[in-house]
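Q: What residues go here?
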């Protein structure tokens, strides 16, 4: 990389500095918009005792699920178990620490972390196990619990197009958690389908400005479907 050029050409460069015990914020929703190549590189590196923040943990054998196979993840902060049997098994056996968080609260915890806000109050989870042990305050006659924001040592993000300065555009539903994750990492790495020269992107349609991005790599993607549902013919 030189100057404002944030493009790297290898996955070793993309995740240089990732080490045992770090916290990773991963974009994606199910298998939609996940940084497949970066996840594969984490598996290849063999780093362990990771805390991973993501809406869920992929599926068996794909996405973040491949990191469960080698017991690389110590703790998951996520919204649901999803289609991952190994995730469920490790949760129930106590091998994996899991902090289940309402989906909107998780999104706001990441957004707040990226904005430099240390905590916020929300009504979601009050009076449930989610709220146990958390500070409670009343606003306008309603009870709210205090939730701390989240930041990570690394954020791994999947984009559609980026320029060399790190400006990123996401495509359709693959946008999901990715823009939030991009703001909340000390080092943000974006994997994209296409890299263009500065000025080629429509500046009015950029979702993540390059100021948030440290490294950009062009990858190839399998884009699996998490659960395929088809209508039976009559």
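A:
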């Amino acid at each position: 990389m030189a100057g404002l050029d944030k493009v790297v050409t290898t996955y070793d460069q993309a995740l240089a500095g990732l080490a045992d015990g770090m916290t990773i914020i991963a974009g994606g929703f199910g298998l939609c918009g996940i940084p497949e190549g970066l996840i594969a590189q984490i598996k290849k590196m063999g780093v362990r005792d990771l805390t991973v923040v993501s809406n869920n943990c992929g599926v068996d054998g794909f996405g973040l699920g491949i990191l469960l196979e080698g017991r690389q993840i110590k703790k998951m902060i996520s919204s649901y178990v999803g289609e991952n049997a190994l995730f469920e098994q490790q949760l129930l056996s106590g091998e994996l620490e899991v902090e289940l968080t309402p989906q909107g609260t998780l999104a706001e915890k990441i957004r707040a972390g990226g904005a430099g806000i240390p905590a916020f109050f929300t009504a979601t989870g009050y009076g449930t196990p989610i709220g146990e042990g958390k500070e409670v305050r009343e606003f306008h006659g309603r009870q709210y619990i205090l939730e701390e924001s989240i930041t990570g040592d690394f954020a791994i993000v999947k984009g559609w197009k980026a320029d060399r300065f790190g400006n990123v555009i996401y495509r359709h539903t693959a946008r999901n958690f990715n823009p939030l994750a991009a703001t909340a990492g000390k080092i943000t790495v974006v994997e994209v389908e296409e890299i263009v020269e500065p000025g080629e992107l429509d500046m009015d349609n950029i979702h993540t400005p390059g100021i948030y991005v440290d490294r950009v790599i062009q990858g190839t993607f399998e884009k699996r479907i998490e659960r395929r549902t088809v209508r039976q013919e009559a």
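A: Context that may help when evaluating the design: Helices lie at 11-14, 36-45, 65-69, 85-93, 103-114, 178-183. The first helix runs from residue 11 to 14.
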